């Protein structure tokens, strides 16, 4: 039986190039399908409302293309017309902006022989891209002033010329968290080709800078250092002039998200936390540039705001509540109630862009498709793109909201995806997919990706359970704080209670339930495979936490962990952190556990996976395997690592939830066989030509 499963795995790998739309329609999605799914990444409508610029992902094909993350291509669509490919191919287009007169598009990319990413521009009526500015380091973002004669970009200092020579001689010692350089804002005049960028005197490390719509003042977000912990927890907001003088400082606290100018330049709006211990920047604040006074315009009592834009005297925002989302307009100078531009149940809106004339566009997904571009009209949402036309012919499994009650009476929500060939009255195996954070959530939209190949698993006869356990976003500040100094129990028994509810309904086979998740979802997986091991027949942990004590000592976000999660330091509550660590409960471990981790992860150090692997393997009560991905961080970004992950996860679940179980399936996926097939096919094509 083991040999049969092994050859089935090889057949699944080798079928990638031959999957046809008709077969997909009969069988649902495959892992090979998921590896090629594309989506719209960003949207920017021109100020005059006549053009829409958007970027679209272009996936690399495993085994065929050189490895790397997906490409990002630029398309421009005239309103009412067909989209035109502007910059496509092996490119990564980012930070797209329009000139104030709507005649040019600016973007960041590495083009031609570039070593570092610079700022380019291209005329909307065609022509070649022109490089605007570049330095000997990557430009991270930029902003254009009203007159169009100045550009401010964000970048670290240029790398010293001696750097390469020192590397060649082996002098590469790094002084941890001291050998870092602040990110600066640089002013570059656009009407002088001979000019050099000049650094603005801004204290701290610059995170973002945006020109006022009426003058040359800048709205700037900074942190004390460029360390991620400072960016998360110590972000400040101020208005400065081009001499670096602070015009207005805003007194903010805790996490801070997007910050934007009002249309008249007299106010700013930003996403912010309620206080230092709020896990999210989910409320909307408005600040007056004249006196620095701020007030909360949109509360996050039972929802969270995810994006904001300004039009005239109104703010437009995307609100996520429970499993749904909507687009809302709120007036600042008129005493009228907030108005839903798009109400709940019309897809899951992720990002928005608004023109000077009020034309509004959003990126949204549904259970039937990943993120696409939509126009918001009086009649509702009008879809403008179809990144995966082949997906329209694929049979997708039924998806619905699922509500249940935790053992302490708390009402919980999740998404349930049925087996593709579901028959009422039958019970099926199930995989629970656990989101990270925990200050995030999953909506009733598109939830399939390489780490959660939900539709592919549903096509093989599995239920997918996607819970928003306590501590998740989308239900307000109070709900998001329910996990603070309350790790693992009851937040992870919330997941178990969802499983038990589905078992009680007769839909799920209690003995055939697996669990998987990444980051904090990996922590939930590790806890479920140890403390709650009796309830799970298979587990796949990705970049997860196994030891809360050593996590504190190896992560790059200790202050964030203390402020919005643990609410205690290890030296103040050592025993609690120990007892909320999966390794503490390893004697309970009977669940076959597959552990996967990027070896360059700084958020959750790979030693977290190594610890749990060594504990479980030494104890010898449960099968365990550890897979490390070279060069990957907190999640796999490259095509090969993503596809390999999907294959291993699916194979592990099939082996223990539908197969004979016992010893793990063979570890070698025989990727070289696929490479040989492609090479032979290529040579055959050449011979025929």
Name the features.
36 strands; Rossmann fold; 8-stranded mixed sheet; 689 residues; 15 helices; 21% helix; 4-stranded antiparallel sheet; disordered N terminus; alpha+beta
Structure summarized in a few sentences:
The protein has 689 residues and is an alpha+beta fold.
Write the layout of secondary structure elements.
Blueprint: H1 2-14, H2 21-27, H3 31-34, E1 40-45, E2 51-58, E3 71-78, E4 84-87, E5 94-98, E6 104-109, E7 118-123, E8 130-133, E9 141-144, E10 150-156, H4 162-168, E11 183-189, E12 198-199, E13 205-211, E14 218-223, H5 228-233, E15 236-240, E16 246-250, E17 256-261, E18 267-272, E19 283-288, E20 294-298, E21 304-311, E22 314-321, E23 324-331, E24 339-342, E25 348-354, E26 360-366, E27 369-377, E28 380-383, E29 399-405, E30 411-417, E31 428-434, H6 454-459, E32 463-468, H7 477-480, H8 491-504, E33 508-518, H9 520-530, E34 538-542, H10 548-554, H11 558-566, H12 574-579, E35 593-598, H13 607-619, E36 624-629, H14 639-658, H15 671-688
Parallel strand pairs: 31-32, 31-33, 33-34, 34-35, 35-36
Antiparallel strand pairs: 1-2, 2-3, 3-4, 5-6, 6-7, 7-8, 9-10, 10-11, 11-12, 13-14, 14-15, 15-16, 17-18, 18-19, 19-20, 21-22, 22-23, 23-24, 25-26, 26-27, 27-28, 29-30, 30-32
């Amino acid at each position: 039986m083991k040999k049969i499963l092994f050859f089935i795995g090889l057949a699944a790998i080798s079928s990638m190039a031959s999957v046809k739309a008709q077969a997909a329609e009969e069988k649902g999605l495959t892992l090979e399908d998921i590896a090629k799914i594309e989506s719209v990444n960003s949207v920017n409508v021109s100020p005059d409302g006549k053009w829409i610029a958007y970027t679209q992902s272009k996936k690399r094909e495993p085994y065929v293309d050189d490895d790397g993350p997906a490409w990002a291509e630029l398309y421009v669509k005239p309103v009412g017309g067909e989209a035109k490919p502007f910059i496509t191919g092996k490119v990564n287009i980012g930070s797209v902006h329009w000139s104030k007169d709507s005649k040019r598009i600016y973007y960041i990319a590495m083009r031609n022989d570039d070593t570092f990413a610079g700022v380019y521009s291209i005329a909307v009526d065609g022509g070649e891209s022109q490089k605007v500015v570049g330095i000997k380091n990557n430009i991270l973002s930029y902003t254009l002033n009203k007159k169009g004669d100045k550009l401010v970009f964000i970048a670290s200092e240029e790398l010293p010329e001696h750097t390469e020579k020192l590397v060649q001689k082996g002098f590469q010692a790094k002084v941890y968290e001291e050998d870092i350089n602040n990110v600066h804002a640089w002013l570059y005049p656009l009407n002088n080709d001979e000019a050099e960028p000049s650094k603005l005197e801004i204290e701290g490390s610059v995170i973002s800078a945006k020109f006022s719509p009426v003058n040359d003042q800048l709205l700037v977000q900074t942190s004390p250092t460029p360390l991620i912990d400072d960016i998360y927890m110590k972000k400040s907001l101020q208005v400065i002039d081009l001499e670096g003088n602070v015009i207005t400082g805003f007194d903010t606290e805790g996490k801070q998200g997007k910050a934007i100018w009002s249309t008249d330049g007299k106010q700013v709006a930003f996403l912010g936390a309620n206080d230092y211990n709020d896990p999210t920047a989910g409320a909307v604040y408005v600040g007056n540039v004249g006196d620095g006074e701020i007030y909360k315009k949109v509360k996050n009592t039972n929802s969270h705001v995810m994006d904001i834009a300004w039009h005239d005297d109104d703010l437009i925002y995307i609100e996520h509540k429970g499993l749904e989302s909507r687009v809302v307009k709120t007036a600042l100078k008129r005493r009228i109630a907030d108005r839903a531009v798009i109400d709940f149940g019309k897809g899951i809106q992720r990002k928005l862009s608004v023109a000077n004339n009020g034309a509004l566009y959003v990126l949204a997904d549904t259970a039937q498709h990943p993120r696409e571009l939509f126009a918001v009209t009086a009649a509702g949402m009008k879809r403008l793109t179809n990144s995966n036309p082949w997906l329209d012919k694929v049979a997708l499994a039924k998806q619905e909201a699922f509500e249940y009650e935790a053992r302490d009476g708390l009402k919980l929500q999740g998404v349930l995806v049925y087996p593709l060939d579901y028959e009422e009255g039958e019970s099926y195996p199930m995989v629970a997919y656990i989101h990270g954070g925990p200050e995030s959530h999953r909506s009733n939209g598109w939830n399939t990706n390489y780490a959660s190949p939900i539709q592919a698993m549903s096509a093989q006869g599995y239920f997918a359970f996607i819970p928003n356990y306590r501590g998740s976003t989308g239900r307000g500040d109070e709900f998001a704080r329910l996990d603070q100094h309350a790790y693992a129990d009851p937040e992870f028994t919330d997941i178990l209670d969802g499983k038990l509810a589905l078992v009680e309904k007769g839909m799920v086979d209690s003995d055939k339930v697996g669990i998987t998740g990444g980051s904090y979802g990996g922590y939930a997986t590790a806890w479920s495979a140890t403390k709650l091991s009796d309830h799970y027949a298979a587990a796949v942990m990705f970049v997860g936490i196994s030891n809360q004590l050593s996590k504190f000592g190896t992560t790059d976000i200790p202050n964030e962990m203390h402020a919005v999660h643990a609410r205690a330091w290890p030296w103040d509550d050592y025993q609690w952190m120990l007892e909320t660590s999966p390794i503490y409960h390893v004697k309970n471990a009977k669940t076959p556990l597959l552990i996967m981790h990027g070896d360059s992860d700084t958020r959750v150090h790979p030693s977290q996976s190594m610890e749990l692997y060594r504990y479980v393997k030494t104890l010898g009560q449960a099968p365990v395997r550890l897979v490390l991905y070279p060069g990957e961080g907190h999640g796999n970004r490259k095509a090969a690592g993503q596809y390999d992950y999907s294959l291993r996860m699916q194979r592990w679940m099939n082996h223990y939830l539908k197969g004979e179980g016992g010893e793990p399936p063979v570890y070698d996926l025989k990727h070289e066989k696929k490479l040989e097939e492609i090479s032979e096919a290529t040579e055959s094509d050449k011979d025929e030509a």
